[in-house]
Amino acid sequence: MSELMLALEKEAVNRQHDVANIIASGASSVEKFYSGTNVFVTGGSGFLGKQLLEKLFRCCNVNKVYLLLRAKKGKTAQQRVKEILQDPVFDSLHNRKSKFADNVLAVSGDVSEVKLGLSASDWDLITGQVNIIFHTAATVNFNESMKVVALTNVRGTREILRLAKCCKELRSIVHVSTAYSHATHSRVGRAVKEQFYDSPVPPNAFIDMAETIDESKLENMMQQVKADWPNAYSFSKALGEEIVRSEAENLPISIVRPAIVISSYREPLPGWIDPMNSLGPSGLILGLMTGIIHGTDSSDETDGSSKACEQPLTHNRVYPC
User: Any signal peptide, and if so, which residues (predicted)?
Assistant: First the structure.
């Protein structure tokens, strides 16, 4: 087994050398696509968002990245950007491109609000300057209320699409969903394919209810509708995909479906994990390796899959990771 693992490791390293050589030569089609562009990112304070931000500046030579951030814990959006860029994930980038932080700009807003909570001037700034949008923001609490997931994960996606339609120089949008958006109880044992599936409820009707109905009443109304989904998060992501299908027909958009997100493999540094993700699978693996955790309950029918961070994608299709 050890020889097999070493062989797999060697193969992985060799693949990375090939990628590094292409990037160094300037021949990467991905690098050329992003070079000189202005990018708008939601969810930039999270694990995927930080990895994405680091990758864009390290490998793609983007011009500017605008991060949608809300004021939080007494800190403004601008203060939060400075805090985010102090994360160890950016250490190498600070050494290699010391001025990159000057091109990371905070835009005050909230993905759960209408028009993303943007001021009129910031709306005009984004729609006039941005070429590429990454929508990674979401509430990932499995037990979140129906009202919160409706306004954040579903309406937030709709508001991103409305912003995109106003962008004058738009090239691409990437909407981050989940591999479990349609991994329902009734679909156990069957593959979730790279396609759209029927929505359990019209997304705009769900949004309208969340905007007008008492939270407890909404929970009761949705119990039967969401019963086939294991949690509120995956249910809301199914509706988010339906919003994309129904309202983004003429937009250059891709849906990416990551599976369980764990620590980085090699880039930008081996084993990096955001503190917010450390209590998940990575925390379990670390606990088992250190002997703090000796076992965990599971089922013979359980099939786990995981994947490290994705590099930027630009094609118009659905990607399960």
Answer: none
If DSSP codes are grouped into helix, strand and coil, which group holds residue 168?
A: coil
Cα(62)–Cα(66) distance, rounded to whole angstroms? 11
pTM here is 0.83
Name every residue whose Cβ is closer than 8 Å to that of residue 117 and which is 6 or more positions away in sequence.
70, 108, 109, 110, 111
Scored b (16 or more CB within 10 A) or e, 46-63 reads bbbbbbbbbbbbbbbbbe
CA distances to 57, 156, 182 from 103, in Å: 9, 25, 38
Strand partners, 199: none
Cα–chain-centroid distance for residue 230? 20
Domain ranges of the chain: 26-262+308-320
pLDDT tens-digit map of 207-228: 999 999 999 999 999 999 999 9
Amino acid occupying residue 290: T
Whole-angstrom Cα distance, residue 158 to residue 150?
11
Record: fold of 26-262+308-320: Rossmann fold (3.40.50)
